[in-house]
Design brief:
With 81 residues, the chain is mostly helical.
Length: 81
Amino acid sequence: MAGSATPTLAYPGPRSSLAKTVPKPFPVRRAKAEGWRDLGILVVAVDVEDGLTWEERELLRQIGNRLYGHRPETPESATTL
């Protein structure tokens, strides 16, 4: 048939009997938001959390140190002046 476009098929995913064991991506940000809203649990990676100022990260670090003890110093968490 001249002029007819060939249909494109969407990729249905892995074709294997093991396909149901392939892990689905975990929505980390959504889990953090739901934990805060539903349970009052705040999950923050102090050294890498985007959207926090230095002062906010430092405040959270001080609270964590007071509640749970000091973390070992790592190159990523070292603060330089």
